[in-house]
Amino acid sequence: MTTLAEAGRALALESARYAALGWMRGTAGNLSVVLEHDPLRLAVTVSGRDKGELTDDDVVVVDATGATTDPVKVPSAEAGLHGRIASVSGAGAVVHVHAFAPVVAAEYWPGGVELRDLEMLKGFGRAAHDDLVTIPVIPNGQDMRVLGDAFEAGYRSDTPALLVARHGIYVWGEDLRQARHRLECLEWLLRFAVETKRGVA
Ligand SMILES: [Zn+2]
Q1: How far is the CA of 130 from the centre of ligand 1 (A)?
Q2: The pLDDT value given to residue 2
Q3: How far is the CA of 170 from the centre of ligand 1 (A)?
Q4: Does position 47 have pLDDT exceeding 60, yes or no?
Q5: 161 has which bridge partners?
Q6: In angstroms, what is the span from residue 168 Cα to ligand 1's centroid?
Q7: How many whole angstroms from 66 Cα to the centroid of ligand 1?
Q8: pLDDT attached to residue 86
Q9: Is-contact 26 107, C-beta < 8 A?
Q10: pLDDT, tens only, 117-175
């Protein structure tokens, strides 16, 4: 089982990596790993820190609703959606970044972004050919219960990603490494979709 200290170190390293890609600008974005599935306990990055400069201690434990009993540390405001995604999907890690192409894609295709016949889909865990992949899009908001309900309504176990319009992207996996690989490939796929788009949606 992952300890909180191990989780803190892993989350700081992952955050620095995403920050270097320009996907966690300012203090944007948040990452989590599951410490325990039943009852669900997640280690999530704390609120308001530069994601390129997190320390192993910039992590806090939350429950499935994103609430913490920590008297000092403040979890990310979006921890509740991490909790909902982990409890619905059974994921071991959830990553959320404010990369640009995913948000543009959600703007063009608010009903869901369709991807198919692209080699990089294999890196997302789907087939390179004859497999229509639709990345769901939900409206942005500040109430994580509302976002969680919208996520759950459109959830499919074979599509481990969610776009939040005018906000960012969530991707999940068995662990941080798998989530990262999926996110890297999906960001490429969404950039391809945006940059090859012609005319009006
Ligand atoms: Zn965000």
Answers
A1: 32
A2: 80
A3: 9
A4: yes
A5: 171
A6: 6
A7: 14
A8: 98
A9: no
A10: 999 999 999 999 999 999 999 999 999 999 999 999 999 999 999 999 999 999 999 99
**Phi, psi torsion values for 134, nearest 5 degrees:** -115, 115
Residue 200 has pLDDT above 80, yes or no: no
User: How many angstroms separate the Cα of 27 from the Cα of each of 17, 150, 155, 175?
Assistant: 14, 25, 28, 23
**Strand partners of residue 168:** 164
Strand order across the 168-173 sheet: 59-62, 40-45, 30-37, 93-97, 168-173, 161-164, 137-138
Instruction: Name the one residue in this structure whose structure tokens are 């391809």.
Output: 192
pLDDT, the chain, mean: 96
Find out whether 182 and 124 touch, Cβ atoms under 8 Å: yes
To which residue do tokens 């300890």 refer?
Answer: 3
Domains of the chain plus CATH, in order, are: 4-195 (3.40.225.10)
Distance 146 CA to ligand 1 centre (A): 15
pLDDT at 1 over 70: no
As a whole number of angstroms, the distance between CA 197 and CA 6 comes to 42
DSSP 80-143: HHHHHHHHHH--SEEEEE--HHHHHHHHH-TT-EEE-S-GGGGGGTS-SSS--EEE-EE---S-
The two tokens of residue 111 are 């009903």
Give 96 Cα–ligand 1 centroid separation in angstroms: 6
Q: With 70 as the cut, is the pLDDT of residue 40 above it?
A: yes
**Average pLDDT score over residue span 169-191:** 98
